[in-house]
Design brief:
Helix 5 packs parallel to helix 9. The protein is 31% helix and 17% strand. The protein is elongated, with a radius of gyration of 18 Å. Strand 2, helix 6 and strand 3 form a beta-alpha-beta unit. It is of the alpha/beta class. It has a domain of 149 residues: Rossmann fold (3-Layer(aba) Sandwich), CATH 3.40.50. The chain is built from 9 helices and 9 strands.
Length: 242
Amino acid sequence: MINSEEVDRLREWIKKSDNIVFFGGAGVSTESNIPDFRSQDGIYNQKYKYPPETIISHSFFMQNTEEFYRFYRDRMVYKDAKPNAAHLALAKLEKEGKLKAVVTQNIDGLHQMAGSKKVLELHGSIMRNTCMKCGKKYGLDAIVNAKEIIPRCTCGGIIKPDVVLYEEGLDDRVMSEALDYIANADMLIIGGTSLVVYPAAGLVQYYNGHKLVLINKSETSQDRNADLVIHEKIGEVLGSVV
């Protein structure tokens, strides 16, 4: 049962804020039936020929491209997933002028599907794909509907998802913009993330305000620094206050 006192305080803070930034992770999409990474049923606890952390690395992609794509289509692409109450609530807050940006570690594109306009995707997106040879851009269908296991461009080059793999750096422009939004926010809502993936999780320390809200089913290392902590499903919480 959600603590009504905590939810009332969250609702009041949102009402009084007009420069909110949301920072989210995999837990935001679990209510859309997309598994997270580190929970008991998460991707990292599934049994594969190679550890998932190894498969979604740059070197593995280059050396074992077929095996990468088998795993990627099976465990990273959820074409039929739909936005849940959390995505819809955030899109509504943006439309009302209260929420200035969504900073996400997710690659599923559900924030945009829900109607959010300012979405900073720290780890890229499955919706964007690029030929490694000629640079031609492709949508998700090129990956999902490829005739071969390895999707190829019309030029013959391999199409690579625009997602940040292990061993790859984050986009400097996206990181800088996210840092700027967080540093200037009057309210920062962190949701659905264990805050263990760096450098993304390090962005939180740039928040200078006094309304740091943490909504996550389990405890995080930042709980002690937050002004309000709610250990519940984020979709249920945001859906009840927005």
